[in-house]
Amino acid sequence: MALSNRNPQPITIAQPKSPVSEAYRNVRTNIQFSTAVNGARTLMFTSSVPEEGKTSTATNVAVVSAQAGKRVLLVDADLRKPQVHHRFQVSNLDGLSTVLIRERSLEECVIASRVPNLFLVPSGPIPPNPSEMLSSRMFVDFLQHCADEYDLVMIDTPPVLSVTDALIVSRQTDGVVFVVNALKTNRNLARQAVAALEQVNARVLGVVLNRVQQRDRQYGYAYSYYYASEEKLSM
Ligand SMILES: Nc1ncnc2c1ncn2[C@@H]1O[C@H](COP(=O)(O)OP(=O)(O)OP(=O)(O)O)[C@@H](O)[C@H]1O
Ligand SMILES: [Mg+2]
Hints:
CATH topology: Rossmann fold
Bound molecules: adenosine-5'-triphosphate, magnesium ion
EC number: 2.7.10.2
Catalytic activity: L-tyrosyl-[protein] + ATP = O-phospho-L-tyrosyl-[protein] + ADP + H(+)
CATH superfamily: P-loop containing nucleotide triphosphate hydrolases
Enzyme class: transferase
Protein name: non-specific protein-tyrosine kinase
GO molecular function, one term: identical protein binding
């Protein structure tokens, strides 16, 4: 069963005992190792190009991290194609964009999800100038405030090679989780995107190889791989 538009909720909520959910728990553990060493609290999820699984990874890792007892805030900083509100079926009337224009406070925008310990800040209405808003002092203050209030802040962003937003966000976050779609990601584009992140001094903590079939697992890339695959459930 693939995730469908009719049932957008994270698979770790819909099918917590599935092998895929187990894979996301492995991703969580790997991220915990990196963050424990580096003390990282604010983590962003990105990839080279669209539709590689950024949002799926961010939402599922946020769910399993909250289930492990952390107080987690999942922020939708994809102000172009926001999806977090859709995955959790919550309102998107207020969110990051309304905080950044000072219309709402962080507290007014946080939504408690159905998962204990997991809180959401949806994107809010799509603004005309996302890059400018994410470059603002308000965004820096917003993230600082989030990091003060939560154990882990997980941030969903657009792809690195499409717009500058992810690079801008990466400068304000402690670590980057880079998602690769094993079925279609172009190796050169992935390298280009990681190089762009490193050029702005982002700390790439690891790579999630999404859509890997169990039997096709391979090791040996320059970065540590985290694994998550829903392919086994596809029908
Ligand atoms: N491992 C997986 N198995 C099956 N379907 C998946 C998997 N990962 C993601 N998908 C599906 O692929 C589509 C794109 O995934 P997702 O929205 O997570 O990607 P994205 O990188 O956030 O995309 P965008 O660049 O548009 O923000 C979604 O329909 C999602 O349900
Ligand atoms: Mg997305």
